[in-house]
């Protein structure tokens, strides 16, 4: 389990990163926290000829408010999602998801940007980003573009990013009055990738739900919005009947496959149970 | 002939400045162990799942198996050897000894790194918080309870010490 | 005549481990840490398929790769080594194909080493492995043990007549009658998943052959250095005296590090070829592919009870699936053999039939791992006992109290032929009931059930085989020592050293030996230096296997200590012109046995005997070194016993299980060090719980291990494990002076059974019952009808 030979360069600006990438002739890879890249190297699942360390580029660091949106730059470590006052306040769903991501020491190094770019369908942050209706700010040689989360996650480890582009930050829209969030997942051990997980954000006013978004993780090739379940909840009260209707509707949202260790029907059952629990928590204090 | 890819790095390791040329593929763990002889840092999985390789990187626990040596150029690394020499975890070490919170000892340096960071962040953890902090540290020998006990008793003793001195 | 009070009772005290201080300071000396001059590194090209024929191996390009010293194939290495065969003579008609270092013509499991690359660094060796081309013609692998036994099935290895490795039947005359007469019969079909040891330090070996002297030194993370000295000498044609095996600190072993592996043999062979040190450290992926796996049993069983709820008989059929060949030198049949003999062990049951079939398949070898056979026999027995309790509407704890062999009914022989000197099931059950507050927990369980919270209580009494004599392996022709040896010496300044054959992997062997020797010599354990794990410096012995360190090693140390004590007293008597009977050793001195007055320090004895032996009366033997060997006699094994209980909460919607608490009452005879005993038990319990709930080596139809990494194979971690409460009953064995039995495997023996009963107890209202490990959420949900 030793990495194959490769070259390494540390860059201190975006333009230097692009230069290095182009010089890498299609065989270069960006390195942020390295907590997905390095194990993949150790396992010899990847063999880039060049790693471009972008972790010290100043433009990729920082958390700030921008026109009411919260901007979380790509190099923000997972651990900061639990401790940064702006994230706690303006992106509570990200904060709620963070304790489920790996273990404390991993969270010290792994970056939120790296996690999103990796686009692991079992990962917590992509689902949270989807439920928050966040946007990804992507920079390339040709400029900057913003891609909403639902257009960003395209498939298994696949995003809207083009080769050589860099994820600069995650933009989280301002919270609405009465907004509530909840996150939970089922996993066999603490910190494991989930059997199924769900991130929910909604507005609760006059005992009625509105503006609801639900994103599931570990149910397909990317984080999945549960549109039919959302529809079943919209305008409803958070009572048993509404929750049951949402649970029933979930079948139409999730296209689950049999896994070697668990049939699709059981996965759907678990997704429904989890949805019920997370919704229950949404109503909580 | 192989291409020379080595890079020069300068790293503060246990308070000493170390300057060396390393291949970029070399992990921080292999660098510490094989080049610097700091064998307190162990390897149990080389993929971030066991915690045997935890070191303090800029004061926070980090996996030396998931970090390349070139990535820590200009940074501060502290291993169990350094923590011990500085005396900052003497009470934790004593509590581990007293409670027999290690058997083969292979997980111990990672456990101490996690415990040290936990008690800095949260001086009064309850048992479930301690277990949670240890969620990435595998121990095959002890069954964990003695480790939890040792960390809990260290936290309690530190609280008393602070209570009497301040 | 009054004797002076004993101030030197070290046995029974919670002494802390001196050697733990090194680890706490980061100064462990693991084989993985060792660097020798001119050392080179090994990596292996492994078979990607489970069964196939090797058509071609091309190492040309790899040999040219940077840093490569050489690339070795079967043609290079196998001729250096005499093949090994994992059979034992006392397992009649047992068969297993001969093994050699690298695969020659066929591969028989996915992961089998085919080519060895030696390079200046491990990374370069791995680079070169990628350049080796191995052409293999795939054959359909034998994966399912039952199908493997069908007539005409392909054999897992070439040259086998069938896939049956071994079979045996054990029965009493009246077993059929007992079932015919039974008031109630419960049965079950059990499946115990494969799991593996996952020691945190992987297997590691540095072989160092010196061609100038013909001396081979092997540094190896093993629990049995003498066994490997013998293996390396015989299989590589060296004299035993030319082979030295050193096991410094070992990062966990649990039985996994006493088997012969292809990679270690390859490393020794490569060092012989190259005449320089060769290092092989398995990485975690290689560990999963090549370390022995354990268990993998399918058991059909039934239990008969009479009208009074007394268990009268069991019938058991165990199919053990062991991989492509039987492990060497202990075989892969020993676990099944123990499974069928341990069944029903705690109970009075009169009649029994046990059938064992050991079967080959194209997976990595299985063999002895902590608590060999016990978890299976215990789970089968105890799940059936709970089934009886349910069928009869009786409380499971009460039913057990009525059925265990009473404490006053010893010696006792089980229906399976095991002889028990003296056990304490009743006392242990009584202690457990009080410790766990059984009645309160039952009341709470009933209350919570009404609120939709499903908790369960599971109970599992157990017996454990410890202190094995030669009956285990020696009589079968294996060169595995059942005896141990110790040398104890007094240094010129009055310190003590003990070189002993039992070894340390963190369980505290060295500490208890120091306590025992210290007590014999009146020297505090801190002043007793214990030296283990080096065949050149310690006497020969069995080392660490099957729970023998305390019982056999401890007795050896005790007798060695007493021998030296007598020698010291004889010198003291000569110096003091006194009688030996009037002297005693205490406080590092020779004291007056009656008054306790110090007569002479041990340092003074050391000084006189070493530097001024001329001042001793003529004819006085000045030896301050004593050697002693000891082999158990009397009962074939010293059985221990105990009981475990598990308290769980099952989330019946998700199938997730929360372990709330665990209790163990254990009788390991005389306790030498309660601190160490309790931690042995806790560690063992967690390994048992891991197997019950999490750990499983998953294979696909092609015989590929699909979860062979530490991210996918779920070991028990801190958050999921419960606190474990421990109580003791002490029934010393009278077979030894020391009275200690083993304890290392007790925790693992019954933890899984207790957990399985607890989960099933929680699921009782749903009439769901699991008989498969690990009890995954998917399996629990399936049992609950969510399919
Ligand atoms: C033991 C372990 C357990 C884990 N458990 C979980 C878990 O439970 N849940 C979970 O969600 N994750 C988990 N992870 C994954 C962890 O969160 C990842 O490290 C993280 O997803 C990647 O972040 P990084 O900064 O380390 O990225 P890197 O490893 O540096 O990069 C990941 C990928 O993203 C690219 N990249 C990184 N940053 C950028 C950027 N700004 N622009 C463009 N490309 C970029 C890289 O080129 C690479 O392809 C686990 C990891 C480990 C080792
Ligand atoms: S070796 Fe780094 S986490 Fe296991
Ligand atoms: S003490 Fe052996 S792994 Fe923890």
Protein model, in words:
- The complex is a heterotrimer of chains A (285), B (166) and C (787).
- Chain A is an alpha+beta fold.
- Chain A has twelve helices and 14 strands.
- Chain A folds into three domains: 7-53, Uridine Diphospho-n-acetylenolpyruvylglucosamine Reductase, domain 2; 61-172, Uridine Diphospho-n-acetylenolpyruvylglucosamine Reductase, domain 3; 180-282, Enolase-like, domain 1.
- Chain B folds into two domains: 7-83, Ubiquitin-like (UB roll), CATH 3.10.20.30; 87-165, Orthogonal Bundle (DNA polymerase, domain 1).
- Chain B has helices spanning 28-35, 80-86, 90-99, 108-121, 127-133, 145-165, and strands spanning 7-13, 16-22, 54-57, 60-63, 76-78.
- In chain B, a hairpin with a 2-residue loop joins strand 1 and strand 2.
- Chain C folds into three domains: 20-27 and 483-630, Aldehyde Oxidoreductase, domain 4 (2-Layer Sandwich), CATH 3.30.365; 34-139 and 198-290, Alpha-Beta Complex (Aldehyde Oxidoreductase, domain 3), CATH 3.90.1170.50; 370-461 and 639-783, Aldehyde Oxidoreductase, domain 4.
- The chains are: A alpha+beta (285), B alpha+beta (166), C alpha+beta (787).
- Chains in contact: A-B, A-C, B-C.
- The interface between B and C is large, with 57 and 55 residues.
- The structure holds flavin-adenine dinucleotide and FE2/S2 (inorganic) cluster (FES) (2 copies).
- One FE2/S2 (inorganic) cluster sits between chains B (102-107, 139-142) and C (200, 252, 506).
- Chain C: Residues 25-140 form the Aldehyde oxidase/xanthine dehydrogenase a/b hammerhead domain.
- Chain C: Keywords: Molybdenum, Oxidoreductase.
- Chain C: It holds the Pfam family MoCoBD_1.
- Chain C: This is Carbon monoxide dehydrogenase.
Radius of gyration of chain C: 28 Å
CATH level-two architecture of the largest domain in chain A: 2-Layer Sandwich
Number of helices of chain C: 20
Global Rg of chain A: 19 Å
In the predicted model, the low-confidence regions of chain A spanning at least 5 consecutive residues are: none
**In this structure, how is the largest beta sheet of chain A organized?**
5 strands, antiparallel
Name of the CATH first level of the largest domain in chain A: Alpha Beta
The low-pLDDT segments of chain C are none
Average pLDDT taken over every residue of chain C: 95
Total of domains of chain C = 3
Structural class by secondary-structure content of chain C: alpha+beta
Largest interchain contact: B-C, 57 and 55 residues
Helix/strand structural class of chain A: alpha+beta
């Amino acid at each position: 389990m030793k990495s194959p030979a490769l070259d390494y360069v540390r860059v201190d600006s975006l333009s230097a990163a692009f230069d290095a990438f182009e010089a890498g002739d299609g065989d270069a890879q960006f390195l942020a926290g390295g907590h997905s890249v390095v194990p993949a190297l150790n396992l010899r699942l990847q063999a880039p000829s060049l790693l471009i360390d972008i972790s010290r580029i100043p433009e990729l660091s920082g958390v700030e408010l921008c026109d009411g949106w919260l901007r979380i730059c790509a190099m923000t470590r997972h651990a900061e999602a639990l401790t940064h006052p702006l994230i706690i306040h303006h992106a509570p769903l990200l904060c709620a998801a963070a304790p489920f991501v790996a273990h404390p020491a991993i969270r010290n190094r792994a970056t939120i940007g790296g996690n999103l770019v990796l686009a692991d369908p079992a990962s917590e942050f992509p689902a949270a980003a989807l439920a928050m209706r966040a946007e990804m700010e992507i920079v390339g040689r040709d400029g900057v573009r913003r891609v909403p989360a639902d257009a960003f996650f395209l498939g298994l480890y696949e995003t809207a990013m083009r080769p050589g582009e860099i994820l600069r930050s995650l933009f989280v829209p301002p919270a609405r009055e009465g907004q509530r969030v909840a996150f939970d997942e089922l996993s066999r051990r603490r910190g494991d990738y989930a059997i199924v997980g769900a991130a929910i954000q909604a507005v609760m006013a006059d005992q009625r739900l509105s503006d609801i978004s639900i994103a599931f993780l570990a149910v397909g090739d990317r984080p999945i919005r549960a549109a039919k379940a959302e529809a079943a909840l919209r305008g409803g009260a958070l009572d048993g009947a509404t929750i049951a209707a949402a649970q029933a509707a979930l079948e139409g949202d999730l296209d689950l496959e049999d896994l070697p260790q668990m049939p699709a029907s059981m996965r759907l059952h678990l997704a429904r149970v989890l949805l019920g629990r997370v919704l229950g928590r949404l109503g909580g204090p | 002939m192989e291409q020379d890819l080595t890079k020069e790095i300068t790293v503060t390791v246990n308070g000493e400045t170390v300057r060396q040329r390393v291949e970029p593929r070399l992990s921080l763990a292999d660098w510490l162990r094989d080049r610097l002889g700091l064998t307190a840092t162990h390897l149990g999985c080389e993929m971030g799942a066991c915690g045997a390789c935890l070191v303090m990187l800029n004061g926070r626990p980090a996996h030396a198996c998931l970090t390349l040596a070139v990535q820590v150029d200009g940074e501060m690394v502290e291993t169990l050897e350094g923590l011990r020499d500085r005396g900052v975890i003497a009470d934790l070490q004593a509590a581990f000894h007293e409670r027999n919170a290690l058997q083969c000892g292979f997980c111990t340096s990672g456990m101490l790194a996690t415990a040290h960071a936990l008690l800095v962040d949260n001086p009064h953890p309850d048992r479930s918080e301690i277990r949670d902090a240890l969620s990435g540290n595998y121990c095959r020998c002890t069954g964990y309870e003695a480790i939890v006990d040792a960390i809990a008793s260290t936290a309690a003793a530190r609280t008393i010490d602070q209570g009497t001195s301040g | 005549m009054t004797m002076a009070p004993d101030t030197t009772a070290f046995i029974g005290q919670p002494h802390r481990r001196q050697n733990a201080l090194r680890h706490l300071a980061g100064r462990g000396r693991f084989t993985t840490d060792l660097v020798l001059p001119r050392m080179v590194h090994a990596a292996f090209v492994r078979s990607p398929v489970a069964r196939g024929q090797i058509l071609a191996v091309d190492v040309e390009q790899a040999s040219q790769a940077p840093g490569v010293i050489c690339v070795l194939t079967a043609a290079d290495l196998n001729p250096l080594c005499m093949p090994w065969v994992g059979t034992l003579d006392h397992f009649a008609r047992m068969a297993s194909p001969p093994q050699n270092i690298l695969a020659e013509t066929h591969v028989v499991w996915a992961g089998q080493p085919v080519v060895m690359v030696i390079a200046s660094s491990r990374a370069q060796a791995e680079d070169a492995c990628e350049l080796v081309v191995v052409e293999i013609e795939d054959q359909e692998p034998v994966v399912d043990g039952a199908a493997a036994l069908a007539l005409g099935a392909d054999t897992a290895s070439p040259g086998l007549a069938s896939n049956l490795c071994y079979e045996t039947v054990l029965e009493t005359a009246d077993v059929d009658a007992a079932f015919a007469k039974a008031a109630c019969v419960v049965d079950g079909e059990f499946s115990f998943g494969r799991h593996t040891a996952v020691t945190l330090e992987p297997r590691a070996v540095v072989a160092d052959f010196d061609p100038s002297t013909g001396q081979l030194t092997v540094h190896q993370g093993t629990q049995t250095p003498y066994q490997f000295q013998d293996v390396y000498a015989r299989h590589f044609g060296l004299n035993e005296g030319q082979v030295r095996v050193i096991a410094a600190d070992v990062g966990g072993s649990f039985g996994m590090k006493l088997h012969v592996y292809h990679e270690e043999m390859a490393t020794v062979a490569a060092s012989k070829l190259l005449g320089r040190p060769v290092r092989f450290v398995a990485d975690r992926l290689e560990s999963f592919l090549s370390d022995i796996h354990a268990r993998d049993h399918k058991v059909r069983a039934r239990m008969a009870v009479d009208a009074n709820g007394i268990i009268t008989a069991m019938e058991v059929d165990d199919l053990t699936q062991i991989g492509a060949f039987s492990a060497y030198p202990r075989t892969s049949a020993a676990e099944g053999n123990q499974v069928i003999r341990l069944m029903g062990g705690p109970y009075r049951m009169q009649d029994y039939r046990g059938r064992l079939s050991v079967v080959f398949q194209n997976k990595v070898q299985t063999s002895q791992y902590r608590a060999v056979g016990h978890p299976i026999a215990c789970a089968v027995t105890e799940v059936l006992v709970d089934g009886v309790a349910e069928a009869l509407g009786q409380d499971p704890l009460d039913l057990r109290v009525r059925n265990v062999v009473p404490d006053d009914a010893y010696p006792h022989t089980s229906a399976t032929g095991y002889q028990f000197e003296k056990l304490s099931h009743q006392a242990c059950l009584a202690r457990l009931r009080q410790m766990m507050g059984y009645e309160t927990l039952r009341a709470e369980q009933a209350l919570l059930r009404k609120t939709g919270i499903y908790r369960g209580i599971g109970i599992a009494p157990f017996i454990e085989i410890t202190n094995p004599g030669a009956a285990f392996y020696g009589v079968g022709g294996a060169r595995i020592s059942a005896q141990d040896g110790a040398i104890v010496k007094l240094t010129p300044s009055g310190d003590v050293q003990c070189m002993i054959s039992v070894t340390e992997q963190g369980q505290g062997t060295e500490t208890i030996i120091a306590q025992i020797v210290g007590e014999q010599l009146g020297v505090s354990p801190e002043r007793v230096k214990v030296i283990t794990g080096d065949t050149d410096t310690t006497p020969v012995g069995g080392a660490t296997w099957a729970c023998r360190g305390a019982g056999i090693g401890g007795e050896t140390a005790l007798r060695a200590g007493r021998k030296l004590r007598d020698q010291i007293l004889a010198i003291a008597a000569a110096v003091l012109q006194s009688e030996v009977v009037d002297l005693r050793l205490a406080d590092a001195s020779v004291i007056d046995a009656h008054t306790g007055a110090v007569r002479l320090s041990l340092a003074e004895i050391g000084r006189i005997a070493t530097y001024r032996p001329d001042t001793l009366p003529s004819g006085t033997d000045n030896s301050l070194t004593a050697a002693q060997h000891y082999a158990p006699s009397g009962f074939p094994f010293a059985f221990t016993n105990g009981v475990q209980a598990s308290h769980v909460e099952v989330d019946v919607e998700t199938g997730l299980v929360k372990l709330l608490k665990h209790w163990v009452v254990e009788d390991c005879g005389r306790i030498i060090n309660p601190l160490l005993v309790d931690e042995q038990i806790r560690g063992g319990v967690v390994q048992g719980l891991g197997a019950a709930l999490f750990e499983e080596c998953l294979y696909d139809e092609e015989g590929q291990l699909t979860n062979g990494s530490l991210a996918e194979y779920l070991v028990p971690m801190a958050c999921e494990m419960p606190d474990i409460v421990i109580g003791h009953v002490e029934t010393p064995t009278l077979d030894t002076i020391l009275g200690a039995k083993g304890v290392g495997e007790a925790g693992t023996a019954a933890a899984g059974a207790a957990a399985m009963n607890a989960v099933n107890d929680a699921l009782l209202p749903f009439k769901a019952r699991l008989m498969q490990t690990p009890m995954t959420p998917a399996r629990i949900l399936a049992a609950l009808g969510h399919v």
